[in-house]
Structure formats: C-alpha cells, structure tokens
Predict the structure.
Amino acid sequence: MRKGVNMHILFNNSKIDYSKYITTRVYKKGDIVFNEGDLCTSIGLLESGALQISTITILENEYSISTILPDDIFASTLLFSSSPYYLGFGRCLKETKITFISKANLIYLLQNDEAILNNFLSFLANKRLIAQERLKILCQKSIREKILFLLKSRMNEKRTIYFSSKEKLALYLNIERPSLSRELINMQKEKLITYNRKSITLL
C-alpha cells in the first residue's frame, strides 16, 4: 500500500506494496498513448486528465469511440483476449497521468491481494452492465425511446440523470447532437421532461 498519494480505485483497501509493480507516465495534451493495431501489453489506470479513444473509418473520418476519465481503467479485457491489439488510438485531451500494469504484474497482484482482486472484478462487472445497457439503448428505434430508456434505467430518487455534456450524451445514445437537442426541446414542450446543460428530469 502506498501512503501520502492519491490512489486509483483499483487499489482501495489494498495491503500489498504495489508500487514496484506499476509504471506511471504523464502525457501532454495531444500525445498519442497507443495507436490502432498496437499490441496491448498492460492495462492503463487513468489517474488524472482525459484520454479519448478514436478510430478512423473506411472513408478516413475520425470517429470517437469513448472517453476515459479519472478512476477508469482501459484495456482491462483486451489484455487477456486472444487478439490483444488496439482497435483504435488513444489521444490525450489534456495533460494526463496514466499508471500501467503489465499482464504478469497484474496477475501477481490479483493473486496476492484480495482487495485488488475484488476491485478489479467489480470494475469488470460494472463495465459489462454498462455495455448491456448501451446495447439495449441502441435497440430502441427512435431518439425519444433511447432517451426514455436511459432515464428509466439510470434515474435517481428525484427522477433525474446527470451527464457531463450533451456531446457525450449524444455519443452514448449514438445520435447526432442537434437531433438530441431537438428531441429534448420537444419532450420538454410536451411536459415529459425538464432539462438543462447537465441533467434531465422525468416528470
């Protein structure tokens, strides 16, 4: 266990001295952490900053797949797959600090610290649930159905969901941002919801 520094959630309640099993790097805005087709040899723990995962389409347009934020982990399943090659490239949106753990070191930590094992399995389980939720969202036929499905699956006791930006919400719902804005306006006019820049409330 390291003391006196901010810990990634993977190490919550860990008892082992994991400092010798990790490597930490700081990247500048715009730096490429990995390229599409690179061999994945470690998982990455995002300590600070933001890492955008993107790919280039067949028409050579850049498409954003996801954005990795602090306390998130990337390549957690890719590392153990039968084809561990990145399907996109990772570019830092701001100064970003990433801790890397090689496959061998990760296996050692998982075998020798129950807290790290539990934290890692919990992360994988939650990631799987989110993937299943997104699949169900993508199965919804209309923009309104997608919004309502997300609201009903994620809203709190106040019937509200929160998001960092409309751009990211539109990306998650797999719709264009202008289309999302138009539907939110229509739903508010029909008194189905109220919304602002950071939240939507189901009435």
Notes: Confidence is low (pLDDT under 50) at residues 1-5. Residues 8 and 45 are 7 Å apart (CA to CA). DSSP finds five helices and eleven strands in the chain.
